[in-house]
Amino acid sequence: MKDLTPGMIVAVLEEVFGPAVFWAMVATAAIVTLAYLYVLVRDRSMSMRKFLMAQLSMPFGAVAAVWFVQVMTHSSHRDLGGPIDVIVYLGVAVIGAIGAAILVYTLQSLLRGAPKQEQER
Amino acid sequence: MGDFNLDRRRFLTLGALGGGAAAAGLASASNAGAAPVKTAAKILILGAGAAGTALANRLSARLDGARITLLDPRQDHYYQPGFTLIAAGLKPAGYSVTRTADWLPRTVDWISEGAAEIDPDAKQVTTTSGKTLGYDYLIVATGIELDYDAIEGMSLDLIGADGIGSVYAGPDYAAKTWAAMDAFTDKGGTGLFTRPATEMKCAGAPLKYTFLTDDYARRKGTRGKVEIKYAAHSAALFSVPIVNEKARMLFEDRGFDVTYHHVMTAIDPGRKTASFRTPDGTTEIGFDFINVIPPMRAHDVVKNSPLSWKTGKWVGEGWVEVDKHMLRHPRFPEVFAVGDVAGVPKGKTAASVKWQVPVIEDHLVAQIAGGEGTMAYNGYTSCPLITRIGRAMLVEFDYNNNLTPSFPGIVAPLEELWISWLLKEVALKATYNAMLRGRA
To answer: Any CB–CB contact under 8 A between B13 and chain A?
Structure first.
């Protein structure tokens, strides 16, 4: 690669997914992030019950992310050939796990409402 | 289960977890280039392949008022690095095909004709319909002619039948080659792999396809019935010594039968044999599947023009004579050559084009502005050398046969890695497309 500028990375990502899908993904990530921040601000606390559910979803998110990358690239576990491959592989899993946790926590918070109501139940 | 309250620090930490996902979107996609140079120069680009299209886009962004004309008869644009993936059954033929018109800026005048004659003394080009186009600056980006006629008995209509494949010929031929290779690896027999003695585009491709055929036979459990023969044109598998040595080791590891100094001259589809010129005379090798790679040359219009090399080893191949660092013609300073047609020792890949295009842009724009460019092309060439489906070696090198890794210490150039495969499968086409648009 000659120059790896942020603008070029965005240009490349736009080509990978197509501009519409790429910016839809960015928007989705932004919306989920904002919703997550919203429930944190709204609740002024983290519900450990919701956090436990979120943690339980992490392995599924990790497996799903790795599966998605492997299917999209016609590859499998046996293709890991060096340290960088293991790092990338684990990185994909970690991103999937964190993404799933944030998504699950946010969805629970939005669906179940503020913690006061939950405690009353 | 209790809750815990958030202090500001914890809050920020939790927020950052989600914020990372959105961070990529905050980067600006704008190209912060220099102010456009005002000019009325007439710039003629021959060829709308990777190099011609990328330059058309970049020059139209850098020059204000220039009249840029592009000459190319083909309506379709081919993403040629995808041919290997098509011929490996991983992508459909359409994967490599787009419309030329979709890549060109509106300010560029595209004439869908070929060039019939180049007259650099009069600074004009005659098109195939007889139209005469004058220019102030000429960029030759006509690519390569695949000389199938140079192999006796070979023609394009043979591809796909009788175990004859040819990955380079085009997306449809790559798909036909896959059908032939798929049938071969089901059944078994002798697979014969060749490369020409001329300069060629992506000299790693013949090796890749040999590896891929081997991989399919292993996956299908037929490797025991498959014999793989590789006929190298010289004493080496690859021109860069350190890469050649690695390729030799991998070929040995995979159990390929390699013969050196074998240049294919003829094919007999009926008898399923190929003839080779060797130092000891002509020899024949039988095949059940063959990947024919024809000799490659510049198109006649370039070869027969005053622009081509008139001395040295490339006289017969007709590449444009240029300074290997500036890509400018030594006798006609307003003429540049870029991409496969440039008569330089390395650099017949799309990755090379990516490095050559900014150099020509720099020198051409500086020349128009009355100055001198400063950039130089160092021969950079990149070859994601696929060694099986799921693994590749990201081989990058320059004129001096030095390895020039993009990610030193992270992505090892001579190791078979999954990440190098990911780069080839996912990032390469995207980078190529961004390059076509002048954005990478």
So the answer is: no
Q: Do the chains contact at A76 and B354, CB–CB below 8 Å?
A: no
Q: Is B8 on the interface with A (CB under 8 A)?
A: no
Question: Is some CB atom of chain A closer than 8 A to the CB atom of B431?
Answer: yes
DSSP B269-311: TTTTEEEEEETTEEEEEE-SEEE----EE--HHHHTSTTB--S
Within-domain flag for A77:
yes
> Which segments of B66-188 are extended strands (E)?
67-71, 76-78, 97-99, 109-111, 115-119, 124-127, 132-134, 137-140, 145-146, 164-165
In this complex, the residue of B1, B27, B437 whose CB is nearest that of residue A48 is: B1
- Across all residues in chain B, what is the average pLDDT? 91
Residue at token pair 């017969």? B316
Domains held by chain A: number: 1
Q: What residue segments make up the domains of chain B, in order of their start?
A: 37-144+298-368, 148-295
Are B439 and A7 an interchain contact pair (Cβ–Cβ within 8 Å)?
yes
Question: Could you tell me if residue A1 is inside a domain?
Answer: no
Helix, strand or coil for residue B169? helix
Question: Could A2 and B6 be called an inter-chain contact, meaning their C-beta atoms sit closer than 8 Å?
Answer: no
- The phi and psi torsions of B204 (rounded to 5 degrees) equal -85, -20
CB contact under 8 A, B418 and A89: yes
Q: Give the nearest partner residue to B427 out of A12, A36, A48, using CB atoms.
A: A12
Helix, coil or strand: residue B250: helix
| Predicted structure pTM score | 0.88
Q: In terms of CATH, what superfamily is B37-144+298-368?
A: FAD/NAD(P)-binding domain (3.50.50.60)
Residue-wise pLDDT tens digits, A36-84 = 899 889 888 888 888 899 999 999 999 999 998 898 889 999 999 999 9
Q: What is the ipTM of this complex?
A: 0.80
Domain interval for residue A64: 6-120
Q: Encoding tokens for residue B40?
A: 């009325």
Instruction: List the one residue out of B79, B68, B133 whose CA is nearest residue B102.
Output: B79
The three-state secondary structure class of B110 is: strand
Q: Does a structural domain hold residue A35?
A: yes
Interchain contact, A48 vs B2, CB within 8 Å: yes
The CATH superfamily holding the domain B148-295 is FAD/NAD(P)-binding domain (3.50.50.60)
